[in-house]
Amino acid sequence: MRDKQHYLTRRQIYKVDTDLAFSLDVFGDFLAEREGYKSLDGMDAVYFYLVHKFHWLPSVVKSMTVDDLRFVLSEEMHGWVMPKDAAEVCAN
Asked: What's the domain of life for this entry (predicted)?
């Protein structure tokens, strides 16, 4: 039988995954503003940006994992800081 620490560790792993996905969504808001997207934000802005930057099909981009998306955008994300309001939400 598993103990409480085991479940706490597993819970933390899922929280980290969720926080990384959330930060990518927030980065999409940054991309949308920087690129002047009028009707896209969050993950849709991330997908749109990658489709246009690399000429990949939307279906390919949308099938990528969060880890893969973050890897492809790692240079773009270098130095980016999550806005204070989003960071506070993420911390709770």
From this structure: Bacteria
